[in-house]
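Open question from group meeting: does this chain pack into something compact, or does most of it stay loose? Before anyone orders reagents, we agreed to write out a predicted structure and look at it together. Recording both the input and the output here so the notebook holds the full record.
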Amino acid sequence: VLEDFRENLAKIAKTLTKTFVCWLSDSFYLLVERSSISSKFIQISQSHLDFSPMRVAIFGGTFNPVHCGHLLIAKAAANQFSLDLVFWVPTHHPPHKRQNLTEFEHRLAMVKGAIADNPKFRAVDTGTRQGELSYAINTFKDLQALYPHCQWYWILGQDALQNLPRWRGVAELAAECSWLVAPRTASSTGSTASETALLPQSFRLHWLEMLGVDISSSLVRSYLEQGRSTRSLVPESVQQYLQEHRLFENSEASYPTN
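Structure tokens returned:
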């Protein structure tokens, strides 16, 4: 009789445990449906149940405007380093570039349009106050606070690498991030001794395996000022936005229609 009692008790305990787990699971997903938690968050959480840190990269710049070269660089970084997220961060007031920039709202909108079809890419507004300079270290700390316990990367071009020793907080950034650098040309990945000599020893440099990107925002602006077509230089959504808002257009030049 005692043995039968123990067996029945074990069955009851097993049933109650299974019922509780099902209730907990149902309650969680009901909470998700009734809250602002996005399905993307659930997908990310489910894919990381092994507790491996998310691989997150920051891709900052003026994006004045964003062009096909930017997309090639970000896609190469995401594929080669299995990145989970790439935050595109248009800067409000970059300390290293003093030229007149197109309004931030335009640049942000063009980035959003350019990356809309890639679920790993997200445009971020760091919310810099009017007139306040945009520093990379502040951007990193803001994103790190929102996404703790991640493995961080920073994407940049070889030209930007030369200015990196002068960045504010570069020692802290170097220790926290791995740096994914897009080469000027396919053969320029070895000529970095002078470029990295002043960087902290903790600096971790990785070259992206890709052809050199022979497109720049200044080239796009030059084409637009001359009334030349930029369809081969920028994504279609950006082309349409530029045409709709007539950005960078020389008043004496007609806007290209093809």
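Observations to bring back to the group:
The two ends are 89 Å apart (CA to CA).
The chain is about 45% helix and 15% strand.
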